[in-house]
């Protein structure tokens, strides 16, 4: 089990580490008006989403380079991202970083989101004094991305295709053979963090999502699968594929769907 999802205590122990950069992906007004973790830099979610990026909703390599350089993020920094939505927006930031070559072992989600910190620890307002860097995106060591053709190839294979949307969306139309596990099923509503490891493993196993199988994730626009992708990596799954185009691309290209 990796430390992809980390506690507020884990973060607190590393706030003074110059190689650790804490990134707040909430809206800019929340960062400024509500407060943020000490020393955290702001990279709002809407700044790294695009409909004209490299693939799907990725922002594009030039945009990513500019955002992280301006925020003072180093190419080799350890990154901790958080939001106030159970970690789903933070997960999208971290998966984007991985797809642009950041070391996956250095990417972490604050488990329990902003509230896990703000309930018991001091926050700040105003941006910290941060020196810009020259962030250099690269290629991932092993890309999890799968394209439209790759999904088609796996429809009738042993790959378990996972729809991470809610049950109503799934019933309205999903990829043939896909199983449904709403990403929020893995989150504790009270703590806003992950459910206990054994409970998460049981939910996944009941849906046939086991570490010995290739797993392919999709949603609508690759936001929700980002969270599930990191959960699976946190649990030690090694063969996880990420359909960046998700159902938006699938339906635009007349991919087959079934409804219930």
Q: Can you walk me through this structure?
A:
Keywords: Repeat, Transferase. InterPro entries: Rhodanese-like_dom (IPR001763), Rhodanese-like_dom_sf (IPR036873), Thiosulfate_sulfurtransferase (IPR051126), Thiosulphate_STrfase_CS (IPR001307). This is Sulfurtransferase. Residues 16-125, 155-259 form the Rhodanese domain. The protein is α/β, with parallel strands linked by helices. It has two domains: 5-118, 3-Layer(aba) Sandwich (Oxidized Rhodanese, domain 1), CATH 3.40.250; 148-252, Oxidized Rhodanese, domain 1, CATH 3.40.250. The protein has ten helices and nine strands. It has a five-stranded parallel β-sheet with strand order 1-5-4-2-3. Strand 8, helix 9 and strand 9 (240-242) form a beta-alpha-beta unit. The longest helix has 12 residues, at 88-99. The mean pLDDT is 95.
Secondary structure layout plus pairing:
Layout: E1 5-6, H1 8-12, E2 20-24, H2 28-33, E3 41-42, H3 61-70, E4 78-82, H4 88-99, E5 107-110, H5 113-118, H6 148-154, E6 160-163, H7 167-172, E7 179-180, H8 197-206, E8 215-218, H9 224-234, E9 240-242, H10 246-252
Parallel strand pairs: 1-5, 2-3, 2-4, 4-5, 6-7, 6-8, 8-9
Low-confidence segments, given as residue ranges, are: none
CATH class placement of the largest domain: Alpha Beta
Helicity level, as a percent range? Answer: 25-40%
Task: Look at the helices and sheets and give the structural class.
Answer: alpha/beta
The whole-number mean of residue pLDDT values reads 95
The CATH superfamily of the largest domain appears as Rhodanese-like domain
Approximate shape: globular
If strands are numbered along the chain, what order do they take across the biggest sheet? Answer: 1-5-4-2-3
CATH level-3 fold name of the largest domain = Oxidized Rhodanese, domain 1
Oligomer kind:
single chain
How do the helices and strands follow one another from N- to C-terminus?
Answer: EHEHEHEHEHHEHEHEHEH
- With helices defined by DSSP (H or I, 4 residues minimum), what is the helix count? 10
Largest pleated sheet? 5 strands, parallel
Please state the CA-atom Rg, rounded to the nearest Å: 18 Å
Tally of individual domains: 2
EC number: 2.8.1.-
Keywords: Repeat, Transferase
Region (Disordered): 119-142
GO molecular function, one term: transferase activity
């Amino acid at each position: 089990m990796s430390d992809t999802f980390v506690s507020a205590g884990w973060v607190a122990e590393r706030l003074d580490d110059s190689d650790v950069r804490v990134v707040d992906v909430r809206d800019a007004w929340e960062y400024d008006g509500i407060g943020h973790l000490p020393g955290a830099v702001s990279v709002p979610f809407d700044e790294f989403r695009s409909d004209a990026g490299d693939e799907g909703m990725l922002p594009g390599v030039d945009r990513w380079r500019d955002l992280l350089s301006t925020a003072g993020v180093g190419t080799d920094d350890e990154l901790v991202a958080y939001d106030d939505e159970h970690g789903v927006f933070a997960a999208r930031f971290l998966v984007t970083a991985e797809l642009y070559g950041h070391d996956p072992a250095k990417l972490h989600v604050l488990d329990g989101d902003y509230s896990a910190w703000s309930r018991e620890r001091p926050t700040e307002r105003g941006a910290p004094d941060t020196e810009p860097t020259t962030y250099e995106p690269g290629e991932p060591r092993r890309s999890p991305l799968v394209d439209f053709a790759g999904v088609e190839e796996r429809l009738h294979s042993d790959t378990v295709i996972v729809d991470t949307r809610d049950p109503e969306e799934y019933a309205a139309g999903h990829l043939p053979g896909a199983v449904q596990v709403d990403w929020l099923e893995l989150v504790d509503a009270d703590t806003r963090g992950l459910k206990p490891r054994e409970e998460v493993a049981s939910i996944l196993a009941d849906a046939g999502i086991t570490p010995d199988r290739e797993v392919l994730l999709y949603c609508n626009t690759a936001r929700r699968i980002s969270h599930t992708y990191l959960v699976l990596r946190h649990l030690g799954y090694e063969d996880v594929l990420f359909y960046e185009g998700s159902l938006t691309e699938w339906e635009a290209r007349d991919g087959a769907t079934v409804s219930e």
